[in-house]
Specification:
The chain has 22 helices and 21 strands. By secondary structure, it is α+β, with helices and mostly antiparallel strands. The strands form five sheets. It has a six-stranded antiparallel beta sheet with strand order 4-5-1-11-10-12. Strands 6-7-8-9-13-14 form a six-stranded antiparallel beta sheet, covered by helices on one side. Helix 8 crosses helix 9, helix 9 runs parallel beside helix 12 and helix 18 crosses helix 21. The longest helix has 19 residues. It is globular and about 65 Å long. The two termini are about 35 Å apart.
């Protein structure tokens, strides 16, 4: 995980005396100094190295805050092409970079030097130079956000992965200069208007007219799929996704909540790593919660079953409450469920990083693809079920992807999500909704069970039955039921009845529906005061028109079983 930052000056005569430059005493800050300072606000994302390139002729500066995971000795950015005409800063992992590098080498003339990628992201530049934008965006697979500048035609290429696993924001300052960063906090001081660069979109063109266009347009976005599930194919595709996500040159681990999704990822990863390193290999796994939290019983059960080197991380409610402000700063959101969930993950990440781990696997995404949240039990029909899963998948960058990425990047840890591998997403979302809806048929009786086809696909020798068939427990519930109850009460206690009565006037955009939400919004506004910042947030709310509770906690849904 890294942080990227760029400034593209709009006017040809912008030589460093632009109005964006802060005066320090009697001295005008240089563009280089400004970029280094602003990028430092996200330096937690890349604690290993800071690289900066300023091109005065091209009127730009590009910065990368690097976390070394692949190509540790050779992959420092910004990358500059051999002839100096193409620059690149990238964040993420390109999982098919070796096949892409092979295609580049196949395209070389016989007298050209063999291309050896400096890291996985280096292939973005090489592929662009040899095949162009269209082929690059058609071929690339991974989690990514990048900015490439081609000096030969004064063109900028910006792109973000299809689901938005990796964040990226852009904005313009009062002089019309274009700013880009991995986190909004780098832009808020200088840009009165900030936007999310949308997932599955790219921009290629002049800095004078930046309008992202959608490149990710699978059929399932607009059509109700009709393909029946093939359980063997489903299993193989998830195994392939985990395999691709295990390319890593540094110590790695896995999050293990004891729920179905993270448990499956840890189990598959263990099988793969034992083929590589022998049967004595033990994957390092981690769980977090309050003492007595329901997840611990199941995470320990999985750890014993797969033989992982497991650590339970405990936190107290009081400790968690201390980090509300920090988590809003790092996640850059005031969404209720994101704040509730991010604090335990934030505390867990700190411990993981202290043990020398730099990359972890996690189970985000399965609930969106397969309708795993308990409110999906109340879907009125298969078409509505599919449309809701599409919405959830395409909104992941507002919620679980944002939480998972920024909570871990806060401590310089990279988190990877195999369920959101592009090819796996396209396969699962192309399965007809009738097969993905909650259902179990046993002994002639139909029972409700979310993600049934995923459970059935891995029914042999992957997980204990008690975990394989465990009901969905949302992360903020699974760490301990008293966590949500207490943080809700604590946050609400900061807001008076009089304040809350004026919520619509105070916050006309995304008006807080509860006192808890109002408090998070107050804290957010202190750090991110522009209206455009508030507009980057979308609240995670179940479908109340299906008869569901508006509270995001799974415990509030009809299907929840307290002891599971």
């Amino acid at each position: 995980m890294c942080g990227i930052f760029s400034i593209f000056l709009k006017h040809p005569d912008a030589d460093g005396s632009s109005s964006i430059l802060r005066r320090a005493g009697n001295r005008t800050e240089s563009l280089r100094e400004l970029a280094f300072r602003q990028s430092s606000k996200q330096r937690h994302r890349g604690p290993d190295y800071t690289g900066l390139v300023e091109d005065k002729e091209a009127r730009l500066v590009m910065v990368q805050e690097r976390l070394c995971v692949l190509g540790v000795k050779t992959g420092s950015q910004p990358f500059v092409s051999r002839d100096g005409t193409v620059l690149l800063v990238a964040n993420g992992e390109i999982y098919n970079y070796l096949p892409m590098a092979k295609l580049v080498n196949n395209a070389l003339d016989v007298d050209e030097e063999t291309y050896v990628p400096r890291s996985d992201c280096d292939v973005i530049m090489a592929f662009y130079e040899h095949f162009g934008v269209a082929e690059l965006m058609k071929t690339i697979r991974g989690m990514f956000a990048f900015v490439l500048y081609d000096k030969r035609n004064d063109r900028i290429l910006m792109a973000r992965d299809p689901i938005g696993i990796i964040p990226m924001y852009y904005g313009t300052d009062l002089a019309g200069n274009v700013w880009v960063a991995s986190e909004m906090k780098c832009l808020v001081e200088k840009c009165p208007e900030i936007k999310i660069f949308p997932p599955g979109h790219m921009f290629y063109g002049s800095r004078r007219n930046m309008e992202p266009k959608q490149y990710f347009q699978p059929d399932w976005l607009v059509e109700i799929p009709t393909m029946s599930v093939d359980l063997k194919e489903l299993r193989m595709r998830l195994e392939d996704a985990v395999l691709s996500h295990l390319q890593c040159d540094v110590p790695l681990g896995a999050l293990l909540s004891g729920g179905l999704d993270s448990s499956l990822i840890a189990s598959i990863a263990t099988k793969i790593m034992r083929k590589r390193h022998g049967q004595d290999y033990r994957l390092k796994t981690y769980s977090v919660g309050l003492v007595g939290g329901p997840d611990f019983e199941y995470s320990r059960m999985v750890a014993d079953y797969i033989g992982s080197d497991h650590t339970d991380v405990y936190f107290t409610v009081d400790e968690g409450l201390n980090y509300i402000r920090d988590i809003i700063f790092h996640t850059e959101t005031y969404d209720i469920t994101t704040v509730r969930c991010s604090i335990p993950m934030f505390l867990l990440t700190r411990l993981i990083k202290s043990e020398g781990i730099k990359m972890v696997l996690s189970g985000e995404g399965a609930d969106e693809l397969l309708g795993g949240y308990l409110y999906f039990h109340q879907a009125p029909n298969s078409s509505e079920f599919h449309l809701e899963t599409v919405k959830r998948v395409m909104d992941l960058h507002y919620a679980d992807c944002l939480r998972a990425n920024k909570s871990t990047a806060a401590w310089g840890l990279e988190l990877r999500v195999p369920f959101l591998d592009t090819d796996f997403v396209n396969y699962v979302m192309s399965i007809r909704p009738e097969d993905r809806m909650p259902c179990i048929k046993r002994n002639g009786k139909v029972q409700s069970m979310e993600k049934f086809i995923l459970r059935e696909a891995f029914a042999n020798n992957y997980l204990p039955d008690a975990v394989l068939w465990r009901q969905k427990e949302q992360f903020s519930d699974g760490v301990g039921y008293s966590w949500i109850d207490t943080i809700t009460e604590y946050a609400a206690s900061h807001v008076s009845d009089e304040e809350f009565a004026g919520a619509a006037e105070q916050f006309p955009i995304n008006t807080p529906p509860t006192k808890e939400a109002y408090y998070y919004r107050q804290v957010f506004e202190e750090m991110f005061p522009h209206q455009s910042c508030a507009s980057t947030v979308k609240r995670w709310v179940p479908r109340t028109d299906w008869g569901c509770s508006a509270d995001p906690s799974g415990r509030k849904q009809h299907a929840h079983i307290k002891k599971n």
